[in-house]
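thought: fold this chain, then report.
action: predict
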Amino acid sequence: MSNKSTPLARPLKVGKKTAANRFCIQPMECSDSTPTGGFSERSIERYTNLFKGGAGIIVFESITLQRDYIARTNQISLNINDPESIKAWAEFIKKMKDINPDPLLIIQLTHSGEISGGGEGRRMCVKPLYGFEGDLITDEYADDVIQTWAKASKILYDCGADGVDLKLCHGYLGSQILRPYNDRDWKYGGSWEKRSSFAYNLYDAVRKEVPDPSFILGSKISMWEGIPGGQGSAGPDTPIIDLTESIDLCKGLVDHGASFILQSTGTPVHTCALHMPDRRKADDTYIHMTMAKIIEDNVPDDICVIGSAYSVINKGKNTLKAVPPEWNSLIHWGNYNIDHGYVDMIALGRQSLADPMLPVKYLEDREDEINWCVACDSCAELLTQQENVGCVVHNKPYAEVLRECRKNKGRVTETQIGG
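observation:
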């Protein structure tokens, strides 16, 4: 049977547009911008390969909109007040669409908040979290962030992007505000109604700036962060899982115009192995599959739910137990979960660094040519060290970057990865 007849190959409506297949590329920060946040040769090469790879959706890595709150020294940026920055984005998007017009290009917008600190970055916090203290965000500052994201969305729409991912995950500002831990008395703190209003006000502001219904809105969210008071916890000081607010958030985002939800769990900085399953505990991928199904069960059928954490499964070189060999692959579980209605698309993160051409290789029945991610997490080590990020196993230049990095800075310990 040709792979073109499998669930992963089916087209899918996402809002008013159509994804050609059920593969999505995760927003993977690779810390390879120019010193001013522009597109370097390496960043252009990465996205050229991804567009050639032909995934149904490509979510562009988190971009910052002001250089004073970046998490990565070389984080790609959009300066909404700089005509040259806007021109560069227009040229980049046109170049990618000329390479392959089929993938839907979604740009993820972020504010790093308490995780800021790369390069010129300074930390801004909703409520001081142990080890991540910073300047307290005011009502006015938060409202200004909303307007900045809305203006950036309009610029990206004008530049030809298909939509935006308004980031509400992984310990960045959006998730910091949503957490039960955010019980400070301010405009977006305390009750769930006040905390969630930040996300809903953000959606409303973006749609006001871009009234075209074909412009796709959605968010990557952390269903459960795995820290006391984090998203998906039962209160401001407990790690006990309670998904009531996470489920309500998904419903609320849909009510305010979301066409997709990109599921995630954990945070790279606080609970990296939960967010990005370790190859020694690959069965954490089942937690992500379950979270995606919970979202599916609580949003309308026409909302695209995208599942995460498939890379660790690869082609069966993992620690999954009690499954026959024919089940033990990323491809099997992607097709299975789509076919059973547990998820609409699967997102490739580390795997997209190992082989950006996976979608087209799969669709053309060339699976034997796929370079599989081995979940060594050297890419995460490079990101932690503020170095250019790529697959050190299948892309030799990045192996050299890692060697030089370890020589000059030392190795990153497991507990530091993601920080």
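thought: worth noting. Residues 53 and 357 are 4 Å apart (CA to CA).
final: tokens above.
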